[in-house]
């Protein structure tokens, strides 16, 4: 497995592969890799003859006061895991991928509006910008994104379709810990007590989903989930929402369509640091 740090070296490797008829699958990440990320690499492998992963903590998707500076970084550990998962090339740029004179913005709407955007207004514009840059650099046939970040996956599908990018976007299922907690690089911020409580997020989400599927009014089921999350030790609930699985238009009343997704974002307090914000989602 090659580890490349510059745009020029990356382009040369891609050019070589293209010349010998290889197809390319791509997995963008911010590093601090866990089994969720590695499942994306294995999925990419099934869609292409070569797999590229990138490791880059993208500053344009972090807001003031978020964890850009303290985001966990472990390039040698990540490289070991990627190699074992069958990755062929890691692109880990040294320094910024943005020129000092960078002047281009991307504004996304559609499924990007609401939910995460109500709490992190510039997040998906930043994600769209870095994903566009990375897709232009790697020029993959297919790129894999996790359903863990469900709204992000829909946003990227829209972005690549709207801008005629010649790449197939593949969604990958959420990989979870034994108690149901979705794996996340930020889970390592949780101490033992908060980690134990955090497992409740998925339990409560599943209960809420079962109620809605069973005919309960969406407002009643999501209100009950909010209360259960507070009782379980979460300090603040950003949203518990049932939405159309393609458009993320919010649903209310009894479930009329089977195409619904339940999404949650909630804060878990941790001794000695800011709350850890956890997200999860599932098909209803
Ligand atoms: P990140 O490094 O957090 O930017 O995530 C990189 C990619 O891994 C994104 O497409 C995420 O949706 C995906 N991902 C993160 N956690 C998981 C998980 N538990 N299961 C599946 N995919 C995940």
Explained architecture:
There is one protein chain. This protein has 284 residues and is of the alpha/beta class. It contains nine helices and nine strands. It has helices at residues 7-19, 35-47, 75-84, 116-119, 123-138, 150-162, 192-198, 200-213, 218-231, and strands at residues 2-4, 24-29, 50-55, 89-91, 142-146, 168-172, 236-244, 260-270, 273-283. The strands form two sheets. A six-stranded parallel β-sheet has the order 1-4-3-2-5-6, sandwiched between helices. Strand 3, helix 3 (75-84) and strand 4 (89-91) form a beta-alpha-beta unit. Helix 5 packs across helix 6 (150-162) and helix 8 (200-213) runs antiparallel to helix 9. It binds adenosine monophosphate. Adenosine monophosphate is lined by residues 29-30, 36-37, 39-40, 145-146, 148-149, 172, 174-175, 182-185.
Summarize the structure.
The chain has 284 residues and is an alpha/beta fold.
Shape descriptor:
globular
What share of residues is helical?
A: 25-40%
Query: Total number of β-strand segments?
Result: 9
Small molecules bound in the structure, each named once: adenosine monophosphate
Distance between the termini: 40 Å
SSE ordering: EHEHEHEHHEHEHHHEEE
Overall pLDDT: 97
- Report the C-alpha radius of gyration, rounded: 19 Å
Low-confidence blocks of residues? none
Largest sheet: 6 strands, parallel
Question: Would you spell out the secondary-structure blueprint of this structure?
Answer:
Layout: E1 2-4, H1 7-19, E2 24-29, H2 35-47, E3 50-55, H3 75-84, E4 89-91, H4 116-119, H5 123-138, E5 142-146, H6 150-162, E6 168-172, H7 192-198, H8 200-213, H9 218-231, E7 236-244, E8 260-270, E9 273-283
Parallel strand pairs: 1-4, 2-3, 2-5, 3-4, 5-6
Antiparallel strand pairs: 7-8, 8-9
């Amino acid at each position: 497995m090659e580890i490349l740090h510059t745009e020029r070296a990356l382009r040369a490797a891609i050019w070589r592969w293209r010349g010998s008829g290889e197809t390319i699958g791509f997995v963008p990440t911010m590093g601090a890799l866990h089994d969720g990320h590695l499942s994306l690499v294995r999925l990419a492998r099934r869609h292409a003859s070569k797999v590229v992963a990138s490791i880059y903590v993208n500053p344009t998707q972090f807001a003031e006061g978020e964890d850009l500076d303290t985001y966990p970084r472990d390039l040698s550990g990540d490289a070991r895991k990627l190699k074992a998962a069958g990755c062929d090339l890691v692109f880990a740029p040294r320094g910024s991928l943005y020129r000092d004179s960078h002047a281009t913005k991307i504004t996304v709407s559609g499924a990007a509006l609401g939910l995460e955007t109500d709490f992190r207004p510039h997040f998906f514009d930043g994600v769209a910008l870095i994903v566009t840059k990375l897709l232009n650099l790697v020029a993959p046939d297919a790129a894999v994104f996790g359903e863990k970040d469900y709204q992000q996956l829909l946003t990227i599908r829209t972005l690549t379709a709207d801008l005629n990018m010649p790449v197939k976007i593949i969604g990958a299922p959420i990989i979870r810990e034994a108690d149901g907690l979705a794996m996340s690089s930020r889970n390592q911020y949780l101490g033992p007590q908060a980690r134990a409580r955090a497992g409740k997020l998925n339990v409560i989400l599943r209960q809420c989903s079962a109620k809605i599927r069973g005919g309960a009014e969406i407002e009643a089921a999501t209100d009950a989930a909010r209360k259960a999350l507070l009782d379980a030790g979460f300090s603040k609930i950003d949203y518990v929402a049932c939405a159309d699985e393609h458009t993320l238009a919010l649903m209310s009343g009894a479930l009329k369509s089977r195409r619904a997704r339940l999404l949650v974002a909630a804060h878990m307090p941790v001794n000695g640091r800011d709350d850890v914000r956890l997200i999860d989602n599932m098909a209803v």
